[in-house]
Automatic annotation (TrEMBL):
Compartments in which it is found: Cell membrane
UniProt family annotation: Belongs to the VirD4/TraG family.
Protein name per its UniProtKB record: Conjugal transfer protein TraG
Membrane topology label: Multi-pass membrane protein
Cellular component, GO annotation: plasma membrane
Region Disordered, annotated ranges: 442-472
Keyword line: Cell membrane, Membrane, Transmembrane, Transmembrane helix
The species this protein was found in: Methyloligella halotolerans
Gene3D superfamilies in the cross-refs: P-loop containing nucleotide triphosphate hydrolases
Length: 472
C-alpha cells in the first residue's frame, strides 16, 4: 500500500473514500488522483450510501451530482452548504416548482464564429446517437437544423429571447405553403425565419445556415416534405421546453456560472430529475453537463485545488452521453474527474453500444464492484489473480466467481486501480457512521410561473417568431 500508485491511506483535500481496509484497523482507503472512476453494483448494493453519500458528506471540493432519486440533495446538501460552499438544485420537473435556474444560452457566445462552435452541443447533446441506428441520416439532419436555429438565436436575438423556449418556438415554423398559379407562398413567420437564416449565413460567412434555410424551403410544396420530417425530430426533443411553463422559467436565466465551481471551491450542483422524467430531460442535462465540462476544461485548476468531481450516480439513465467520456481522456490535466455509477456493465453496452461501452470501464483509473452479477464476478475472478494484504504485503490467490458472489464477500467492494494490485475493501454505508452529518437542506426558491408570455422577460413586449431585418 505504501508504494501504491492509485490508492492511499493518507487523506488529502482531493481524497475520495472508496472503502475501508478489511482488517481490524478498518482504515479508510482513498483515491487522490485526477482521473475517472467507475462503480458497478446491482440494486441495493450500497453504491449510493457507501460511496456517493459518504463522499458528498466529506469531499470539500466542488461537485456536480446526478441525483435521480433526490436522496443526495436530501442527505448531503445541508452539510455541504454549511461546510463546503454554495449548493444549487436544478429540478426542472419539481412538483412544487422549486428549482434553481440555468439557461444554456447564457454560456453561448454572441460572437458568430464562436457561437457556431458553441452551438454544436445543441445538436449533439440534445439528439444523442442511437447506437442501434445503422443509418443516422435523419438524426444528423435534425442536429444540423437544431444547430442552425440555435446559432441564429445566439447571434441575432436580444437576451430576453436567448432561451430554449424560443428555440422550440422557432422550430415550430409552418412548412405548409399555399400554391397559387404555380407559385408557393410561405407563412409570413416561416418566410421571416428562413430569410433570417440565410441573411445571417451570408453576413457572417456561415454557409451551413443558408444551406439549412434552402433545405427547408426546397422541401415545402414537395410531396415528401423532408424538411418537415427533420424539423419534427428536432421538435420532439425540445417538446418539454415549449410545452411546460415551469421548464421555461427554469431555463430563462441562470443562478450560477459553470466557472463558479472553480472560483469557489466547494460549490455543488445537484441535477435532480426522477427516472420517470429523465426521458424528457436527459437532453437538457447532457447539454448542461457538457457545457460545464467544456467551459471548465479551458480554466485549469490552480495547483493543489481538489478536482471538480462529477458524481454521476445512475449514469446510464442519461442515455448515450459519449461526450462526457472526453473527460476521461482530457479532464485530468484540467482538474476534472468523473465518477460513474452503474448497476451492471450491460447498461453501458445498451446505452453506448458494445465498443464504447467496453471502453468506459477500461479507461477508468479506478473500478469498484459491489454485489457483482455473474459476468462481473467472472471478470473479477479472472482479474484477481492474487491480492495483497494491506498490512503484511503478503499476496494470496483469490476466489472463484461463485465464491465472489457468496456470503464471504457480501459486504465487500472489489477495487481495481491501474498501477495497483487489486484490493478488497470493507463497504460501509454513510448512515452507519456519518448519519450525524446529515442536515436539513437549504430552501430552494419557488419560481413564479405567471401567465405572462412564456419566454420573454416581464418587461418585454410579446414577440413572435424571429424578427429578421432589425437584428442583423
Ligand atoms: N439511512 C438509511 N438507514 C438504513 N438503511 C438505509 C438507509 N439508506 C439506505 N438504506 C438501505 O441501504 C441499502 C443500500 O442502498 P443504496 O441506495 O446505497 O443502494 P444502491 O446500490 O445505490 O442501489 P440502487 O442501484 O437501487 O440505487 C438499501 O437496502 C437501502 O434501503
Ligand atoms: Mg443508488
Amino acid at each position: 500500500m505504501e508504494n501504491a500508485a492509485s490508492l492511499s491511506l493518507d487523506w488529502t483535500p482531493a481524497s475520495l473514500t472508496l472503502g475501508f481496509t478489511d482488517d481490524a484497523s478498518q482504515r479508510p482507503v482513498y483515491f487522490n488522483g485526477n482521473e475517472s472512476l467507475i462503480t458497478a453494483g446491482g440494486p441495493g448494493s450500497y453504491k449510493t450510501t457507501s460511496q456517493v453519500i459518504r463522499n458528498l458528506l466529506t469531499y470539500p471540493g466542488s461537485a456536480i451530482v446526478l441525483d435521480v432519486k433526490g436522496e443526495l440533495w436530501e442527505q448531503t446538501a445541508g452539510h455541504r452548504a454549511a461546510h463546503f460552499g454554495p449548493v444549487y438544485r436544478f429540478s426542472p420537473a419539481d412538483k412544487d416548482q422549486r428549482s434553481h435556474r440555468y439557461n444554456p444560452f447564457d454560456f453561448i457566445s454572441d460572437d458568430p464564429a464562436q457561437a457556431t462552435a458553441d452551438c454544436d452541443a445543441f445538436g449533439y447533446e440534445i439528439i444523442s446517437d442511437n447506437p442501434d441506428t445503422r443509418d443516422p441520416y435523419w438524426q444528423n439532419r435534425a442536429r444540423n437544423f437544431l444547430w442552425a436555429f440555435a446559432t441564429m438565436i445566439a447571434i441575432s436575438t436580444p437576451k430576453s429571447l436567448r432561451n430554449l423556449a424560443h428555440l422550440a418556438q422557432c422550430l415550430n415554423i409552418s412548412t405548409i405553403g399555399t400554391k397559387e398559379d404555380g407559385v408557393i407562398t410561405l407563412a409570413s413567420s416561416t418566410e421571416a425565419a428562413l430569410k433570417l437564416l440565410s441573411a445571417l449565413g451570408d453576413k457572417h460567412d456561415i454557409p451551413d445556415l443558408r444551406a439549412v434555410s434552402d433545405a427547408i424551403r426546397a422541401g415545402i410544396g414537395l410531396h415528401s416534405n423532408r424538411g418537415e420530417s427533420i424539423l419534427d425530430i428536432a421538435r420532439n426533443h425540445l417538446a418539454p421546453f415549449s410545452q411546460r411553463r415551469f421548464v421555461q422559467e427554469v431555463t430563462r436565466t441562470s443562478d450560477w456560472h459553470p466557472l463558479d465551481f472553480r472560483r469557489e471551491t466547494g460549490t455543488t450542483l445537484y441535477l435532480n430529475v426522477s427516472t420517470s422524467d429523465l426521458p424528457s430531460f436527459s437532453p437538457l442535462l447532457r447539454l448542461m453537463i457538457y457545457q460545464h465540462m467544456r467551459i471548465l476544461l479551458d480554466h485549469v485548476a490552480a495547483p493543489g485545488e481538489p478536482p471538480i468531481t462529477f458524481f454521476l450516480d445512475e449514469l446510464p439513465q442519461l442515455g448515450n452521453f459519449k461526450s462526457i467520456l472526453q473527460m476521461q481522456a482530457v479532464g485530468r490535466s484540467a482538474g476534472l474527474r468523473l465518477w460513474m455509477f452503474v448497476q451492471n456493465l450491460r447498461q453501458l453496452y445498451t446505452a453506448y453500444g458494445l465498443e464504447a461501452g467496453r471502453a468506459i470501464p477500461e479507461d477508468a483509473r479506478v473500478r469498484c464492484y459491489m454485489k457483482p452479477d455473474e459476468s462481473i464476478a467472472e471478470h473479477i475472478a479472472r482479474t484477481l489473480g492474487e491480492t495483497e494484504n494491506l498490512f503484511t504485503g503478503e499476496r494470496r490467490s483469490l476466489a472463484t466467481a461463485a465464491e465472489i458472489r457468496g456470503p464471504k464477500f457480501r459486504n465487500k467492494t472489489f477495487v481495481f486501480a491501474s498501477e495497483d494490485y487489486p484490493v478488497i475493501l470493507e463497504r460501509r454505508p454513510a448512515f452507519q457512521d456519518l448519519g450525524y452529518l446529515v442536515q436539513e437542506p437549504p430552501e430552494v426558491p419557488q419560481l413564479r410561473t405567471s401567465n405572462a408570455h412564456p419566454f420573454a422577460s416581464d418587461d418585454e413586449v410579446e414577440q413572435d417568431t424571429p424578427k429578421p431585418e432589425t437584428e442583423i
